[in-house]
Amino acid sequence: MRECRVLCFLTALVLVAVHGVNGEDPYRFLTWKVTYGDIYPLGVKQQGILINGQFPGPQIDAVTNDNLVINVFNYLREPFLISWNGIQQRRNSWQDGVYGTNCPIRPGKNFTYILQVKDQIGSYFYFPSFGFQKAAGGFGGFRIWSRPGIPVPFPSPAGDFTLLAGDWFKTNHYVLRRLLDSGRNLPFPDGLLINGRGWNGYTFTVDQGKTYRFRISNVGLTTSINFRIQGHSMKLVEVEGSHTLQNTYTSLDIHLGQSYSVLVTADQPVQDYYIVVSSRFTTRVLTTTAILHYSYSSKGVSGPVPIGPTTQIASSLSQARSIRWNLTASGPRPNPQGSYHYGMIKTSRTIMLANSAPYINGKQRYAVNSVSFVPADTPLKLADYFKIPGVFSVGTISSVPTGGNAYLQTSVMGANFREYVEIVFQNWEDTVQSWHIDGYSFFVMGMDGGQWTPASRTRYNLRDTVARYTIQVYPRAWTAIYMALDNVGMWNIRSENWARQYLGQQFYLRVFSPSNSWRDENPIPKNALLCGRARGRRTRPLRAK
């Protein structure tokens, strides 16, 4: 403990020296010890990844603009990285925590992430991004609260619950990784978890008559889910940092990597009720439950588990279109969200991304515009900074589908700072896709079946679509987004299906500013880990000369 206090004190001195003192943007210090541990989420002993002995890991709580200093000690026998799903890392892709930007933390070593939750509110999560370790745990919730004085468009709830749900495999992560490396696909998941527990393994306690906020994230590997609570309706209030129109739902589809906030009023007779999560768009339906426990209830759950939708696409599409921006609500700043007229800005170009599932050299791979991503021997951001040749080339992935044979490549697409782009995700496969873009939120303009064409723009929502960071694309369908490229850096665009991501359905978008100014991008951190061909080079001197 004394060692931790001394380390935090020294870190604080460095931060003050480098960044200065800003009374409006406080610092929060966390120390995490990452270890293996025995877990039994589906009743079978497994080797899990714990953070400070916890599975899932500890909750992060922050307020808009807080600076987080997270010192991560890796006690695993393998390299480790943590990424922050939906945290935009403004001007700071150095802290993104994916292999394209960061060297993994070697066994027995540590790394201190220094990140700011600049101009963000809402519900997020963190997860291990390296070596398929997400299949072993290491994930946790991440809440960003509004600053005092910034109006929130609903009364303060009586409680705020984080619910991390997703599919799970009984097989240890390194066995699953070897399976993928051999060119085979994953088997069907063994079950679903809610906060690391199986059937009826977790309880949320409420008082009758009070309203509670549930922040639900799909932290799974391969499967969309449906969420519902027996006998209760849910009022949607926030999606991935955007306050929404407060529509009421009896169930919600939550795709891989997505996060939703709902308000639930305990307005039923005093007893216990099922909280249900089931798999979506799978022929075999997986189901798990937690308990909504009313205080002073002596009656347990009863009746059948509420049935949810299964393979129906039309209802899911209709629900997705119903999620709208609350134009009059404040976001992280006091001005209304609707003051940003995204639909009136002319886009500079259109990027179309088509996913596919090719076999390359006799092995299952996944690709974007016929390119299946392979990691380089050096993080791309470091190679870019040190101008190391031969690691990657900008333009190694086309901005439109090529239709050619798939091939392996460390694919990087170039883009200019302050462009305003249209991106179309085209899915000709029979499975739902879930796409995530690091460093940004984007506006979901429209989605529909079939082939996207320029005429599809007539069906865009130009007024009140939601801004978010992960979006689904239905089978044999398209989804279009608008995105302002206002964040310089090297940013990962990936499938949130972790097997597809691992086997190549990802690439990096290099958003470039020629000014080379700290106004546009933070300098390389002094403590940046260096590996690959960057090993032995220097970051910045501790003291300016």
UniProtKB/TrEMBL annotation:
Which segment of the chain is annotated as a signal peptide?
Answer: 1-23
Keyword Glycoprotein part of the UniProt annotation: yes
Q: Which residues form the Plastocyanin-like domain?
A: 34-147, 160-295, 377-513
Q: Which terms in the Gene Ontology molecular function aspect does this entry carry?
A: copper ion binding; oxidoreductase activity
Does this entry carry the keyword Signal?
yes
| InterPro entries in UniProt | Cu-oxidase-like_N (IPR011707), Cu-oxidase_2nd (IPR001117), Cu-oxidase_C (IPR011706), Cu-oxidase_fam (IPR045087), Cupredoxin (IPR008972), CuRO_1_AAO-like (IPR034273)
Gene3D superfamilies documented for this protein: Cupredoxins - blue copper proteins
**Keywords linked to the UniProt accession:** Glycoprotein, Signal
Highest taxon above the source species? Eukaryota
Q: Give the family per the record.
A: Belongs to the multicopper oxidase family.
Q: What is this protein called?
A: L-ascorbate oxidase homolog
**Organism, scientific name:** Juglans regia (English walnut)
Give the source lineage, highest ranks first.
Answer: Eukaryota, Viridiplantae, Streptophyta, Embryophyta, Tracheophyta
